[in-house]
Give the backbone structure.
Amino acid sequence: MYLKVSRDHFLRAALEIGQSGENDTLPYDIDAGFIRDRAEEFADICYTLFQKIDGKSIDKAKGYLNELTVVAERLLAPSGANGFRITTKIHPFWNLYLNGLGLAIAEANEPNRNDRVHSYRLGGEAPAFFDRTRSWRTYKEATLKEGALQKEGSVVVQTDISSFYEHIYHHRLENVVKDLGEANSTVALQIDRILSKLAAGRSFGLPVGGQCARVLAEAMMTPIDRSLSDAGIVWHRYVDDFTLICESRQHAYEALSVLSHALADYGLSLNRTKTTTLSAKHYTDYVAAQLGEGEDASADLRELDLHFDPYSDTAQKEYEQLKELFKKIDVQFLIDLEKEKSQPDNFVVTQISRALKFQEPKVAAQLCETLLDVRNLDSFRASWSKIMRGVYSVRANGEFSDFHAQIDQLLDRVIVSAPHLLMPEANLLHFLRTIRFTRTDARGPFVRKTYDRSSSTAVRRACIDCWHHWPDRTGFNYVRNKWQNLTPDEQRIFWLAAGNFGDEGKHARQQLRGSLAQSWRLGFEPEEGPTFAASYREWVKDGA
């Protein structure tokens, strides 16, 4: 199946962004709703641009792409309890354009992928790209079903790739994508040039957090997977995690050598500190514990699928079913167990956070109190984003209104008692979204100081969004007077916020309207048809 890009790829990508957001490490941004609501227009804009580039020779296409400006921002996000990584927030249009190309690449590459690969398999119910039944859990379960595991003397190697996304070399990736398309296709070139701009000119690294990066990473791994199969190795993979099942320790050493050579051909290497060799029995027992089998009190929680789609035709029925299931689980007992551990189980804390909206209001409030207690927050810091998402879901739900004031007090304490946890931009963005429901004496100065001190466009946008939702006229006027110094992304959220400030907001829009066409240009606006700037103005006008 040859790689072929169609308008439908961009339409599907727009709808998927509307459901999932632009970046899974960051909170849902209003721009994702904009892309969803104007999906048909954006499918046209993206496909028109694609055809324009793809109709050029390779050299002319390269020159055209080099002249485009692809806006993105690098933000710090936690990785585990003590580590950090960089996540990339891409301009909503370019994020959509990349995801549309990514979906086309995924469709072309899927037939080449081995059944032993469990990560990001196509087949999800629209608008999702990926099959949710293929997960890290099913990956581990599949390894336990291998007959080779039952042979006497067999051993299992667990390993992963060192700094996987960061070390993917663009030129090698370009060649992999080229192999999927026809000789005159510019898709590989487009991916290479856009990635280079996102990486500030560096020739390596994928932007963490978006769907296209996942697709490209899997495409890069496909020939490496093939090398393992050609060598007769029994293997399974989930993203950068490998499990190799071998007849003996000698064969395990050989298998690691084969894998290391295959990775080296693409500029990648294994993480030596995370490479372990276990006996078959030790591995089986270890995975059983990982999956929560046996007497583990959290086993029922681990088993639950907490996906809930509010736009589903059976949304209310699914919601009620999940609520019934949670009545059988003592979630408070489980979170009390975790807070006593020196290293809490991040998966359990994450599941509890995701489960908050399915609890009875009083129970949800008690769980929020435990999760947001400053004595526990530091221990649970690896699950910060999931905790904030869970608290947000409770704070946004009118069914829990009797406890909103209690939750607001807990959130305000974080500002004073755990400011270090708000230093990574990703953490701060999740927190700002959670406190935007009401202004308090603690939040007013905090948001103002955050806006003034931050160099991040995404963070300043989130501050403006707080003033928008409160609504805070002082904050609104403060930003209005800075209009000429705002980035285009800040201007757009201010333009949306103006609708909450009556005649003053209306007058501000009238005065500033003339500068929008130039400020919000993407650099390739067509002579006819919809543009990004015009589409945004119409979306706001329609009552976004």
